[in-house]
Each structure stands twice: as structure tokens, then as C-alpha cells.
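Q: Here's a chain of 218 amino acids. Please give me its 3D structure as C-alpha cells.
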Amino acid sequence: MRRSVPVVLLTTVLSLVACAGVDGRTPTATASGSSATATAPPSSDAAAPTTPRPRSPSFDQALHDELLAMLDRDQAARAGGADPEGDRARTQRLAEILDRHGWPTYDRVGEDGEDAAWAIAQHSDLDPAVQARALDLLRVAVEAGQGSPGNLAYLEDRVAVGEGRPQRYGTQVGCGPDGPEPATPLADEDAVEELRAAAGLDPLADYLDEMTAVCATD
């Protein structure tokens, strides 16, 4: 299912919190910091018709609703609103969810619930161990067709950048004095477009164009 989500820009680090995966879902943008780090690209086919994924018998409505409420609070905080919960508490709750359920899959929480779990993981920089564990579980879910390859690409880059390693997809960029620039170098510049296409992401040049506009408003 393709979701249309609002773009929220703050005066600090840009952090886009939904991604256009192979299903073409559109991104949310938020921010938190002094140089932009982006976590999701614009969708190139947001107007295309979609077929909703049938609800699985294993769908967990309570978990779905909890994850979306957590995402709402995450986004409100990044839009300058009050956030008595905070990223650390959301990360701790995500860790409990991972302990009990593994990765929140499409069948268990729907595409929007899976997106919400990913956004919380993406913003779990204060606990790299939880973030890395989420990455491992998301990778398994994607291999089973139960998670977004685009979300996986962004979280993989996020973890790599947090560890000071090169990134595969070029999703983590900052707003430098001359516009967007990679937070860490690309692991393989020659392969990046193929990797992005396989994850359902727009070409890197298009993504950087989008980020150029974002940096201009920061």
C-alpha cells in the first residue's frame, strides 16, 4: 500500500521517516540536528494506483496501533512539539517488541506499521545495539517478503554511518556549505545505482536534487 505522508522540515538534522521501497510508498521527512542526514527519498510514482495488501489472520491490531502512535509522537517531536517520551524510551519499547515478536512484519502490523517500526529503529541512534539488532531482523523480514527493501537500505546505511563505515546506498547525507554531501563515503560508487534500483530507490542524482532543495530551506 502506498501511503502519502507529510513533509516536516525543522531547522536541524533532516531525517526522512518513511521510504519509497519497491512498492513505491512515499516518504515522511523530519529533522533533528545541525546538519541534515536524510533517511528516505521521494517517491517517483506517488500518484500510481495501488492494491491494498490483504490483512493477514495473524494481524495484531493492538501492536499496529501502538507503533503508529509511537511514530506520531516521534514526528511531533521532530516538528518542534512536546515529546515527554523521547527517543530513548521509544527505542526501549522497540527492543521489547523485537524480543517478543521479532521484526514487525507486513502480516503482523501492515505496511504502515512496518514503516513505523522502521522509523523508530532509524531514530534509535542512542542505542546502537538495538539499532543493529533491528537491522538484522529487518533483513530477515525482507528476505521473506515481509519488510520493505527500501527501509532496509536506509537502516543499513544509518548503522554504517553510525559506526563510521562507508554506506552502500548513499542515503545518509548532510547539508554542507555547498549543499548535500555524504555523511560517509560510498562503499562502491560504481554499484550504487544498481543497489538503489534493487531496493526500489530513486537514482542517487534525483535524491541529491531533492536534498539540495531541502538544504536550501534549512
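Q: Can you summarize the key feature?
A: The chain has one domain: 14-217.
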